[in-house]
Amino acid sequence: MAAYSETIDLYSDDGKLLKSGVTLDKVSPLVNPATSKIIDLTKRTINVNLAGIENTLKAGKLGGGKIRGRELNLPIMENKEAIVARIKEMVQVEEGDDTEILEFNNGQLLLVQVPRKRLDNAATYDAAITAVSAATTYAIVEEFDVDMFNASTVKAACWGGYPHTMDTKGSNVTSILNIPQNNEGLGFALRNIPVNHFVMMTGRNSLQGAALAATLETAGEFEMGQAIGAFERNQLLCYAYQGLNANNMVYDLVKANGETGTVGTVVQSLVERAIEDKVIAPGKKGGYFQFYNTSDPMLWNAYVAAGSLAASVVNCGAGRFAQAVSSTLLYFNDLIEHETGLPSCDFGRMMGTAVGFSFFSHSIYGGGGPGIFNGNHVVTRHANGVAIPCVVAACALDAGTQMFSPEGSSKVMGETYGQIDVFNKPIDQIAKGVDLIA
Asked: What are the protein's UniProt keywords (predicted)?
């Protein structure tokens, strides 16, 4: 990748300076060790709901349905230690390798970190969830000496409807990532994560949630080939200014407009900041209209990406409703174009995304609230990593207006992944990661 001399200052979600004079390349998902850890754990860490397995077996609720006569009453939680030991023994490649099993809620939930060797020697990240699903099934069958006629029931509690369904519908073994077959194209895996997952993993902190989403969205953009050559700088600038609160821009914009501001006043604040920082300057006049020029369209794009996030926080935070995020993304960027004559966020793609997003999230179609969308969705995939962080921030501030709440769809993500520092405080950890770069 290119070497960058331009620097940014990294600030926390509460506006405190974390690291100054950071060259742009040091926040890259290819370079920063904290970002690499997020990506690594996203691929090889799997949730096991042990209490859920016991309850679904007891009720015969398998694969998303109920099969009468197939109930099994197994004291799984009473024998948790033995089952965990069996799972670890089968998942690990070598004694003492990087396999790790973390327990939460008194062992009701497990977070299994599959050894890197399993993924290094596999074609896809499937290797993580298949190994853990199979090991959990086998551990329970062995522990309780389940016979051949009932072993398939245990398998259904751990694998869900698979292979009758393409995915593991109804499974108690889950991953942050969706199955590869559901990725819409090359490199979409890290973008195929529901908004509500990010909200719960970061404890409903709007800027930390946006940072985590931006990190994996940006990593996805790199994987898609969107950050090659000159485009790399554009992607890194957007990630830094929007996702990592570079130069405290998002925080400053929200603080200046949070009490009485509107989407329109965030536009004003952003344009004033861009003029002050000499990113844009007055150009020609057309009648009453003042056009602006920029010699650095990529930096301007990053400023507008940060403004889009700030506008989402101000507007959706004021109403405590996530539903307005699509129209906020549309009209903030529409106003930016009318105010400056310059391109809006992602050079117009944010506006295009927002039009479809408004329709599919709550207009006459109304298929679902913003929290169930992701960067792989046919509606929200088109903005290059800059739309989903705004949606995450809006959903973090939502007071319960969504049909599909984060607590309803993604509670387990908060109870497991949300307890790991790189997931719940990504801004802080990425800033610390800068010091670890040689």
From this structure: Methanogenesis, Transferase
Q: Is 365 a catalytic residue?
A: yes
Is the sign of the CA dihedral 390, 392, 395, 397 positive or negative?
A: negative
Look at strands 109-113 and 100-104 and give their pairing.
Answer: antiparallel
Distance CA 249, CA 313 (A): 13
**Please, are residues 263 and 328 in contact by the beta-carbon 8 Å criterion?**
yes
Domain limits, the chain: 7-31+187-434, 45-175
Q: Is residue 431 a contact partner of residue 30, using CB atoms and an 8 Å limit?
A: no
DSSP per residue, 268-304: HHHHHHHHHTTSSEEEEEETTEEEEE-S-HHHHHHHH
The answer to whether the predicted template modeling score (pTM) of the entire model surpasses 0.90 is: yes
pLDDT tens digits, 272-303: 999 999 999 999 998 889 999 999 999 999 99
* Predicted local distance difference test score (pLDDT) of residue 364: 60
pLDDT band at residue 365 using 50, 70 and 90 as cut-offs: low
**Cα separation, 197 vs 372, whole angstroms:** 9
Distance CA 290, CA 59 (A): 68
Q: What is 7-31+187-434's CATH superfamily?
A: Methyl-coenzyme M reductase, alpha/beta subunit, C-terminal (1.20.840.10)
Of 138, 162, 365, 417, the active-site residue reads 365
CATH topology assigned to domain 45-175: Alpha-Beta Plaits (3.30.70)
Residue with tokens 């790189």: 422
pLDDT digit string, tens, across residues 381-427: 999 999 999 999 999 999 998 888 999 999 999 999 999 999 999 99
